[in-house]
Design a protein that fits this description.
Layout (H helix, E strand, L loop, with lengths): L1 H20 L9 E3 L11 E3 L11 E14 L16 E10 L4 E15 L12 E16 H5 L10 E19 L8 E6 L7 E12 L4 E11 L22 E13 L11 H14 L69 H12 L16 H13 L6 E5 L7 H21 L7 E5 L18 H7 L2 E5 L1
Parallel strand pairs: 12-13
Antiparallel strand pairs: 1-2, 3-4, 3-11, 4-5, 5-6, 6-7, 7-8, 7-9, 9-10, 10-11, 12-14
């Protein structure tokens, strides 16, 4: 008994959150009438929701017929040792109410008969165990429209198929008949349960696939699982049966049915997809955008910024603009992005916004001269990485046919041979860094000039100069080939 109450509470508990989630009723949308001007918010009128203003049908009746089978119990309709399935019959009728486009409720009446055991009772087979159960049930089912819940906004395909999930609880009355082994075939009523008692509580859940045949008619294939929590529902009552294992006798029903959608509207709310409608309306607004009076003052350059707020009334057609209607110039070189072939590199107007090769070379060399190396080291310092990143950007923005030589140098300390190797290591260190940051390796060579290429020649020996001049001699620079 407690098991049945727990099962009923579990199914009811699963249904209530779904109902709570679906409290926003599609049909309760206020009908809003607006003007086409954006400055007319004060003139928006709202019409209260009434039955006359409903756009969709939300009531329906459903009916179907099919088969029923005992799936678990002491004796079953399948896997029963008889070598065949014992098919019963079932039918249902329900009154359906859609609360939203995704959730509804059903008041459903089920009737049917299962056949279980080792033979069909209608065959009058003697010396065997067979049973049949006639049942009548009333239940409240939650109806979750999974297709509307999960449908993509951009799905413009015809909405003719829908998958529904059902779950609910109810009360069941049944009469179980048993055929006992004996010389003569006999059948007797072994169990009878009346409705509207705790012992008659049951739960059922399942799913259905619906097809919209017309505005008013839906066709549905449905399968349900009936949990009784009652080990006597299968009719396995009697001393000759092994009833020490109390197994809940549960059933499966499969049916084909029709739903008639009641009302005068073009569509039932379950066949309405509000997200798709919103998407469609957005498309229509975009197509009718030229007819909307968005700017009272006009937009003479058609850049999307009204003339009242536009600081540049002659923006070229197709140019991207900021909020003030000014054409964008990302690199601030005086050439707007629409005409700039080097959007991220400042250049000359007579070179389509791109820098000339010598400008690139000079800029890169000037930047790299700021690189500092520690004494007797070719390691690139973190403080130099931003300079090298800028150099990589300059080279990538230059003509792809332009190639460069990375030249390394040292101060005057140490031998000529040692400084030659140190300068080569510094040049290769810079070259490797630039390649890792996107510069094509074929565009770069690396050479070392050792201590013969001093920026400050007077610093030989190093004792003649302050440290900052000696550090400046430990440099890398570029030469364009």
């Amino acid at each position: 008994m407690n098991m049945k109450l727990k099962a009923a509470m579990i199914v009811l508990g699963l249904s209530l959150p779904i109902a709570a989630f679906s409290q926003v009723e599609e049909n309760n949308e206020s009908v809003m009438t607006t003007t086409t001007s954006l400055d007319s918010y004060d003139s928006i009128n709202y019409e209260p929701f009434t039955n006359d203003s409903k756009r969709f049908d939300d009531w329906a009746v459903s009916a179907g017929i099919g088969t029923s089978l005992i799936q678990t119990g002491n004796i079953t309709s399948i896997n029963n040792g008889a070598g065949k399935w014992l098919w019963g019959w079932s039918a249902y009728f329900s009154v359906d109410k859609a609360i939203s486009h995704t959730f509804g409720l059903k008041l459903q009446y089920d009737k049917g008969e299962t056949r279980q055991g080792f033979a069909n009772t209608k065959d009058h087979v003697a010396n065997t165990t067979a049973a049949r159960t006639q049942f009548d049930a009333i239940s409240i089912l939650g109806d979750l429209n999974l297709s509307n819940l999960l449908r993509r906004v951009d799905n413009h395909s015809p909405y003719r198929w829908a998958l529904h999930a059902y779950a609910g609880v109810g009360t069941m009355a049944y009469r179980a008949y048993l055929v006992e082994p004996g010389a003569v075939w006999s059948q007797k009523l072994v169990t009878e349960v009346k409705p509207f008692k705790v012992s008659s509580l049951f739960a059922q859940w399942g799913g259905g696939l619906k097809y919209r045949a017309s505005k008013s008619i839906d066709i549905e294939a449905r399968a349900m699982y009936i949990y009784t929590g009652d080990d006597k529902f299968d009719g396995a009552v009697g001393s000759h049966l092994n009833n020490t294992n109390k197994v809940s006798a549960n059933a499966i029903t499969a049916s084909l049915g029709l739903t008639y959608n009641i009302g005068k509207h073009d569509s039932h709310v379950f066949w309405h997809d509000p997200l798709q409608e919103l998407y469609s309306r957005t498309d229509q607004l975009a197509l009718r955008g030229n007819d909307m009076d968005v700017c009272k003052s006009g937009d003479q350059d058609d850049d999307g910024v009204c003339d009242d707020w536009d600081r540049e009334l002659d923006t070229p057609k197709g140019a991207r603009v900021d909020g003030a209607g000014v054409a964008l110039d990302t690199d601030l070189d005086g050439v707007i992005d629409l005409y700039d072939k080097c959007v991220t590199s400042p250049g000359s107007a007579d070179n389509d916004g791109c820098p000339y090769e010598e400008e690139v070379s000079e800029e890169v060399s000037r930047s790299l001269e700021g690189i500092e190396f520690d004494f007797d080291s070719s390691r690139i310092l973190p403080s130099n990485q931003s300079i090298l990143n800028d150099a990589a950007s300059y080279i990538n923005a230059s003509d792809s046919n332009a190639n460069y030589t990375v030249v390394g140098a040292t101060d005057a300390a140490g031998s000529v041979e040692y400084n030659q190797g140190l300068s080569e290591r510094r040049a290769n260190s810079v070259r490797d860094y630039l390649i890792k940051n996107g510069v094509n390796a074929s565009r770069l060579d690396a050479v070392g000039h050792g201590k013969t290429d001093l920026k400050y020649p007077e610093c030989d020996p190093t004792s003649k100069c302050p440290e900052w001049k000696n550090r400046a001699n430990r440099r890398v620079y570029f030469q364009q080939k």
